Amino acid sequence: MKAKKTSASKLASVPRAEWAEGQNLNLDEKALYTDIDAAGDQYDFIFAPKEESERIVVFFSGDANRKRFDPPVFQRWSWASKFPAHCFFFSDPALYHDDSLGLAWYSGKPGGDYLEHIWGIVGQVAEKLGISAENIFTYASSGGGLPALRSPRYYPGINVIAINPRVSLWRHPTRWVPSFSSVEYQVDDLHGVAREERYKFTALDHEVLDNLGHLFLAQNKLDKTYYRHQYRPLVEFIKSSPNAHKLHAHTFESDAGHAGAEDRPTFHRILRFMKGTLHEKEEVEHGPTVA
C-alpha cells in the first residue's frame, strides 16, 4: 500500500478556513484549517468528517522531501474514506522554520511541544462530537510514528497505531537528527538539549505508557534496521512494564522494506483493531503476539 504524502499546494479543491477554536467546524465536507498559536507557530490540518461516526483517527506525517514537497505536508490524507472515523491529518509546524528541514517529529522547540497544541485542537472536536478517548486513535508510520506513540502524554486513554515507527531519536540517529537539533533547538546534537526537554525525543517513556489505551504496533521484519533498533527496544520496554497487556504487536514481511509501510493484510488487521474485533480469546489466552 502506498502511504503517499501531499503538499497543500496540490489540494486546491479542498476548502480552507481559519480554525477559530472549532467554531466554524464543517461536519459536511473535508476542509483544510489553519491555527496560529500564541508563539506564532502555524498548525495546518485537514479534517475529514465521517457521518455518524463515533471514532476519531489522527494522522501524522513522516519525512517530507523538500525538493518535492512544500509545507504544509499531509500523509495518507486520501485514505480518509477507508476508515470508520472522523480523520485529522496534521502537518508538522517545524517545516516552516527551514527550507531544508523535512522531518522534525512534531517535537517542538525549547519550552514547547507541538503535540500539546495539536491535542488541544483534537480535544475541541472530540468534545463537540461527544467522542471519548477510548474511541480516538493515532495513526502513522516511520518518522510520523514517534509523535503518534508520544501522543497519550497529552490525551490520556487514546489508542495508538504505529507501523515501522521511529521510537527514539537517541537510537540509531539519522541524518535528520542534527538538522532538526540545529533548526529547532540551536544545538549541534540532542545531547545539547536541556534534560527536562528530552522526553520529546523518545516513546520509551513510562508516562506515555501509563496514559496509553492500547497500542497496535506493526513492523516489517525485512526492514531490518528499524526492526532491530526501534521495534525490538519498544517491545522489550513495554513487556517489562505493568502496561504489557496494552500491546498488540504484529510483524509482517514485505520486500518494500521500510518505505512500503503496511501491507494489505496488516491494514485489515488494523481496521479490526479499531473496530474492537481482534480475536479476544487469543489475546486473553496468549497475551500480546510478539515476534
Describe the structure.
The protein contains 7 helices and 11 strands. With 291 residues, the protein is an alpha/beta fold. It has a 9-stranded mixed β-sheet with strand order 2-3-4-7-5-8-9-10-11, with helices on both faces. It is globular, with a radius of gyration of 18 Å. Residues 280-291 have low confidence and may be disordered.
Task: Give the key terms.
single chain; 291 residues; alpha/beta; 9-stranded mixed beta sheet; two-stranded antiparallel sheet; 7 helices; 11 strands; globular; disordered C terminus
What is the element layout, followed by pairings?
Elements: E1 5-7, E2 16-18, E3 31-36, E4 42-48, E5 56-60, E6 73-75, E7 86-90, H1 114-129, E8 136-141, H2 145-150, E9 159-163, H3 176-185, H4 206-211, E10 215-220, H5 224-239, E11 247-252, H6 264-275, H7 280-286
Parallel strand pairs: 2-3, 5-7, 5-8, 8-9, 9-10, 10-11
Antiparallel strand pairs: 1-6, 3-4, 4-7
